[in-house]
Amino acid sequence: MSKRKPLTELILFQKDTEILEERGKNFFQIDFLKAAMTFLVIFDHIVDWGIKSKIGVSLWERISIPVFLVIMGFNMGISFQRKGLTKLNELYSWSYFKSKILRYIVPFLVLYSFSTVIGLIFYQFNITAMYYGQYYPNHGFIQLFTGILPFWGPGNWFIPVIFESILIFPLVYWAFAKKQIFTLILCFTIEIVLQLIVFFFIGEITSWEEAHILGLFMTSFPFYLSAIGLGLWFSFNPKPFSRRNLFIWILFPISLIYIILYQFFGFRLLINDIPLIRGDYNSLVFPYSAVLVLLVMIILPQYSENRFSHAISLIGKSTYHILLTQIFGYGMIFAWRGAHYLINVGFTFFDALLLIYAWIIFIPFGVLWYKLDQEKVIIRRLLYYVNFFLIFIVVVYTMFVWLTPPLINWVPIPFIIILIYAATVLTINILLKNPVKTTTLALWTLFLVYLFILTILYIGILPPSEYLIQNISISTFLILVIIGTVLDYTFRK
After folding, report:
1. Domain boundaries defined on the chain
2. pLDDT at residue 52 greater than cutoff 80
């Protein structure tokens, strides 16, 4: 009987996943968790540690990355199980790499390209100034291999973790498919060994070079392998009170006690004043977040059909694009204002607005980017990208520089026109629900690029005496674009 019960639970869970697959549904619980953690990540990157250290963030807000890591293991485990893949040549297939390249690599390359252009503009096309001006000496050459963007932004470190997961995860799942208990223990062991390597071979950080080497470890997928292992383990049966999951209830109180001591009493595992464990995310904190994931799995339904659920699921599916969007947004804020932690001790009503700004900008824009990536026509997608990034830059500047004390009274006219352009495009898209022709889209994109260039000239180069001439050129360009649009639709078949 002791062997039949866990086997029966596993069979029942597999039937549940088959039903979900047939209905074409994701796990709503997972989408909800990802959406909630996205809000927390944005919160984490704008609120200063002077506030966070006093409100117990390790118990509720700093769980975001551990939860994402557990979910990463869970989702990949479910995906491979549904496909019935167990052999390495099946796991490392072209279809697997193609899906990951399109899902993760391409959006990152798009962001890297646009952020490089914006970085060069910001630093007046001085590559050296751009490289050393934003985060030096923290920003060293070695960080070019950890996914850092020309505009550094918080959360950048997680990108190489995702990229490495593409290469390593199939191997981990292959091992899990053969020996689950052994592989889970091995995941914890590998992470602990890496922590010990850092302790014995790097030790106390005395130079930026050592800090950069430590950064390579802390931006690597194996450094968080225990969380991935827990997610994988639960992908075979996420019921928190099943016999195979009882071990997590032994680890949970240990993890909870450690987090409380770490957060409220400054406890650190030190040997000769050198940390034995680096970072806030490690095998001592992951069980706490893993239990929270399991509890949400039994509290919320596996699928839901109402509008709120659809919105949550859309945010959940867009989390990677939201991550990239907020990295770029906070990077610009960091470059303009010298910090991305804009909410400090002495919390005010305006600070609350800043947090709301961040949520209502980064999340919708991230979802929009995710939707844009579903465009099949490459030319249209490229045009959409140009519109997306130029409008995003202006909106971020408006909300976090222009409308944030000390207020900037003088605003370039092209700057205002871009905002009107964005609002008009959004309104037309909502009302018509029909994409414009590619030729028309190209004409208006050229107009947007021209406005953006003029905005840069207004701010940094043009004297006030030339503003009238530039404004006349805007009007002329706008008339030509309108005429071109009318002709395009007139001769439309």
Report:
1. 4-305, 310-490
2. yes
pLDDT given at position 459:
65
Q: Helices 180-201 and 208-218: crossing angle, nearest 10°? A: 180
Asked if 140 contacts 152 with a C-beta cutoff of 8 angstroms, the reply is: no
Segment 70-77 shows an average pLDDT of 95
Could you read off the pLDDT of 274-309 as tens digits, one per residue? 999 998 999 999 999 999 999 999 999 888 888 888
